[in-house]
Specification:
Length: 196
């Protein structure tokens, strides 16, 4: 899909100059620093996977395939730290995420991602709520009543800026004691992080 998108952008988009070069680096985002230097990017955008919720492939390095939610956040922290390093000072990063239910627990993924962005040194610039119209469950009122959940019809686009911060506030997520795991009824995972 990425190769098709690259070719389509170069062939059909009048906003992409003829001399434009699009380089695809097909690797685990946790390893991107071996392919991209520091302070080279003007903008970055992504929509990371959910933790163990959707199928993204069978590769062993799939970010969403972690044993626990804290393990997933540790991996996401590495990706966000790499994005921070590749961006030029003053440039922006947009990341689309959404909260989710998994195995009877509600995960406040957007709040955890905000904390991770701050952890690696980003300034939070804006939170955009993207409205995707009527949610799927709205068509099934009996399911909404049975599950006791409203239909999801939005996501969060978190916009962050790389400022002039010399060092992040916290060295790593493991040193952060502000409560990264916001999932309800999730004491086992909470006990894995210090300070809970």
């Amino acid at each position: 899909i990425n190769r098709e998108t690259k070719n389509k952008l170069l062939a059909e988009n009048p906003f992409v100059p003829n001399e434009a070069k699009i380089t695809l680096i097909e690797t685990d985002s946790r390893n991107m620093m071996s392919h991209i230097g520091e302070q080279v990017a003007d903008f970055s955008i992504t929509s990371p996977p959910f933790y163990n919720l959707e199928y993204y492939g069978d590769e062993s390095g799939q970010l969403g395939k972690q044993n626990t939610y804290p393990d997933f956040l540790y991996s996401l922290e590495t990706v966000l730290r790499n994005v921070y390093l590749t961006l030029k000072t003053g440039c922006f990063f947009a990341i689309e995420v959404n909260d989710f239910w998994l195995d009877g627990k509600f995960y406040i993924y957007h709040a955890d991602t905000l904390r991770l962005l701050q952890l690696v040194g980003f300034e939070i610039w804006e939170i955009i709520i993207a409205d995707y119209g009527a949610g799927f469950l709205r068509c099934f009122a009996t399911e909404m009543d049975r599950l006791k959940r409203v239909s999801k019809q939005h996501s969060y686009i978190l916009v962050a800026r790389k400022g002039n911060i010399a060092t992040p506030r916290f060295a790593t997520i493991k040193d952060y004691t502000g409560g990264l795991d916001n999932s309800l009824n999730n004491n086992e995972e909470k006990n894995r992080l210090p300070g809970f």
